[in-house]
């Protein structure tokens, strides 16, 4: 058997298992939901089945593809061969998408004819005079098209993440997937029940929210101050030490633009210019998020903050936020991290990452910690 045929065969097996996991979760959550909400005796309870189906399909498709080592290795190898970037069209024409969607389409019809989706038949057709075969065919087509769009979005979105992070995930993907599926089964069972229970009382909650709004704002404001306290304190300490050093050494420091705004959000341009020993340096202030959120620099003019979502000690997935650090200048360009995380990395064009330290160069820029910049400025070695 050729490598491609083996890949397709294993993908088909995985897709079949994935569909039956979806079907099992959907039925467990749906049956429990309808059982627990019998007391509401509402005619539109069957409409919730569609929401349960979509959420179940999204979650199962995501976890099965995100933790697919074989698919990730295949995709990364294809990138190195073709040099083509990920795109919605490429995801649509990919072997992963075509295999998953084909299997899910077939099994959607099979499940509709063999087991049925009575709640959705009632919702969509009601008392319309259609033969049972036509009803089941239309329901199967509906579920198949849901999987079509879900698989398309999943393959494209996860491949974008794979392009940024080419590290191969843990070998224990089966355990992670199983734990995730158990978790969403419980979460959706409880979550949809609560939604059904409390949505009818939404107007009362809105009225109560208006009454409590001033207190909520105060609590949120205090929470934000506590969250950002260390970042603001580090920035304030750096600015105070910078001005003190400039005064003692007869350096010239321009006005610092938006000195604290960049702690909260991205700011454009230079933060300040300092002239020392007849040389000028244009500097941009950057703040880390938290100690455990690494900063990943690239030589393409942006950096990434990586938030790692874990289940116990296992990494489930990462969320990346992008920050453009580039600016125009004819002087030496410095990036100063005033609140520095435990780890900072540089990621090259090939996707390889290495740790960096203060004073390292990234293209036209030199990256400093707050203390590293002040020490280098005092010793007149910013140019080294």
Topology:
Elements: H1 3-36, H2 47-66, H3 69-82, H4 88-92, H5 95-114, H6 118-125, H7 132-164, H8 173-198, H9 202-249, E1 252-253, H10 261-264, E2 272-276, E3 279-287, E4 295-298, E5 302-311, E6 314-324, E7 332-339, E8 344-347, E9 353-355, E10 360-362, E11 365-369, H11 370-378
Parallel strand pairs: 3-7, 4-8, 7-11
Antiparallel strand pairs: 1-2, 2-3, 4-5, 5-6, 8-9, 10-11
Helix pairs in contact: 1-2, 1-5, 1-8, 2-7, 2-8, 5-7, 9-11
Briefly, what is this?
By secondary structure, this protein is an alpha/beta fold.
Description:
- It is a single chain.
- This protein has 384 residues and is α/β, with parallel strands linked by helices.
- Helix content is 58%, strand content 17%.
- It has helices spanning 3-36, 47-66, 69-82, 88-92, 95-114, 118-125, 132-164, 173-198, 202-249, 261-264, 370-378, and strands spanning 252-253, 272-276, 279-287, 295-298, 302-311, 314-324, 332-339, 344-347, 353-355, 360-362, 365-369.
- How much helical structure, as a percent, in the residues? 55-70%
- Secondary-structure class: alpha/beta
Shape: elongated
Rg, alpha carbons:
27 Å
Please report the number of helical segments. 11
């Amino acid at each position: 058997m050729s490598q491609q045929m083996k890949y397709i065969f294993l993908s088909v097996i995985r897709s079949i298992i994935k569909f039956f996991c979806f079907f099992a979760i959907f039925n467990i959550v749906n049956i429990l939901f309808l059982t627990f909400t019998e007391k509401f005796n509402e005619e539109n309870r069957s409409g919730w089945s569609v929401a349960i189906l979509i959420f179940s399909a999204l979650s199962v498709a995501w976890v099965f593809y995100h933790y697919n080592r074989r698919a990730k290795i295949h995709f990364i190898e294809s990138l190195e061969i073709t040099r083509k970037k990920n795109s919605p069209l490429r995801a649509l024409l990919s072997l992963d998408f075509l295999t998953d969607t084909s299997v899910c389409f077939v099994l959607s019809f099979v499940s509709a004819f063999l087991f049925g989706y009575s709640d959705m038949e009632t919702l969509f057709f009601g008392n319309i005079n259609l033969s049972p075969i036509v009803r089941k065919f239309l329901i199967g087509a509906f579920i198949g098209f849901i999987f079509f769009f879900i698989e398309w979005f999943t393959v494209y979105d996860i491949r974008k993440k794979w392009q940024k992070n080419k590290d191969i995930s843990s070998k224990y993907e089966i355990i992670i997937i199983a734990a995730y599926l158990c978790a969403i089964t419980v979460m959706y069972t409880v979550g949809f029940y609560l939604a059904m229970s409390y949505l009818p009382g939404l107007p009362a909650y809105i009225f109560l929210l208006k009454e409590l709004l001033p207190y909520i704002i105060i609590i949120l404001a205090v929470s934000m101050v506590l969250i950002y306290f260390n970042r603001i304190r580090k920035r304030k300490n750096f600015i105070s030490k910078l001005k003190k050093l400039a005064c003692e050494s007869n350096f010239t420091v321009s006005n610092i633009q938006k000195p604290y705004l960049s702690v909260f959000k991205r700011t454009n341009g230079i933060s300040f210019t300092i002239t020392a020993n007849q040389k000028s340096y244009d500097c941009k202030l950057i703040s880390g998020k938290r100690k455990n959120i690494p900063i990943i620099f690239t030589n393409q003019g942006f950096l990434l903050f990586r938030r790692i979502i874990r289940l116990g000690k296992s990494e489930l997935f990462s969320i990346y936020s992008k920050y453009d650090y580039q600016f125009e200048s004819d002087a030496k360009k410095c990036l100063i991290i005033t609140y520095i995380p435990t780890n900072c990395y540089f990621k090259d064009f090939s996707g390889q990452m290495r740790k960096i330290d203060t004073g390292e160069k990234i293209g036209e820029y030199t990256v400093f910690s707050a203390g590293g910049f002040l020490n280098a400025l005092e010793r007149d070695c910013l140019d080294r």
